[in-house]
Amino acid sequence: MTEPLGHLFRIEPLSPKHVREGFACGVDALDRYLASQAGQDSKRSYASNFVAAELSSGRVCGFYTLSMAGVAVGLLPEPLQRKMPRYPSVPAVRLGRLAVAVTAKGRGLGKWLLLDAMARSLASEVAWAAFVVDAKDETARSFYLQYGFLALADDPLHMFLPRATVQAAFSAGGGTVGPQPQQNHCKRLPK
Ligand SMILES: CC(C)(COP(=O)(O)OP(=O)(O)OC[C@H]1O[C@@H](n2cnc3c(N)ncnc32)[C@H](O)[C@@H]1OP(=O)(O)O)[C@@H](O)C(=O)NCCC(=O)NCCS
Q1: Residue 178 region, left (φ>0) first, then alpha (ψ -120 to 50), else beta?
Q2: What is the b/e burial string over 91-104, where b = at least 16 CB atoms within 10 angstroms of the residue's CB?
Q3: Ligand 1 mean position, distance from CA 64 (Å)
Q4: For residue range 144-162, what is the model confidence (pLDDT) as tens digits?
Q5: Which atom of ligand 1 is closest in space to residue 136's alpha carbon?
Q6: Superfamily of 9-184 according to CATH
Q7: N or C: at which end does the chain have fewer Cβ atoms within 10 angstroms?
Q8: Per-residue pLDDT reduced to its tens digit, 48-95
Q9: What pLDDT is attached to residue 143?
Q10: Closest approach atom of ligand 1 to CA 145
């Protein structure tokens, strides 16, 4: 069961004002990344980091990373390949990391972060045709499966949604990043 979250958190680019100390999502590698690598990656443009910051304290309760990527056409499902021009790869956005603090789980923050990442990607003027995620394990994979993500041919944990599917999930005025998940104007992503 999710709850309104906009009065508790704001999703925004990571900056020095955010309190990262103590963030724990249950996956050490993600905790370490936020603590020691995320700032550098943002500064050097290796990845854009966005955080769900608690309004009252600035404490980070969730985060995700976005970067540009390419997907070899041969990894996409056959029916999709047939519709594509004969390029070796298609441009993609990669949601490399997504994590919610154990203290904030189960309230809809993970879903809000995912929708926010999609909305920001749709708002970008850089072309992309696939929204790619790297699920860390089977639990993460099951999280993405419920939103209709499909496996790429190289690894069941390497998953994607076609841009058209992401776009269709947002209404005509969609793609705007709002203070509430509902205000992302997102219809249900396919199950
Ligand atoms: C996966 C994760 C981001 C989910 O965050 P969360 O805030 O607890 O998720 P939400 O509360 O937004 O859940 C949204 C929906 O997903 C469901 N859900 C949550 N975790 C799930 C899982 N592992 N498998 C299937 N469904 C899941 C919820 O029941 C909810 O369903 P509903 O909309 O029908 O009520 C969080 O558990 C996490 O940080 N895990 C550790 C890191 C990780 O695995 N990251 C994923 C990619 S690397």
Answers
A1: beta
A2: ebbbbbbbbbbeeb
A3: 13
A4: 999 999 999 999 999 999 9
A5: 48
A6: Gcn5-related N-acetyltransferase (GNAT) (3.40.630.30)
A7: N
A8: 999 999 999 999 999 999 999 999 999 999 999 998 888 999 999 999
A9: 96
A10: 25
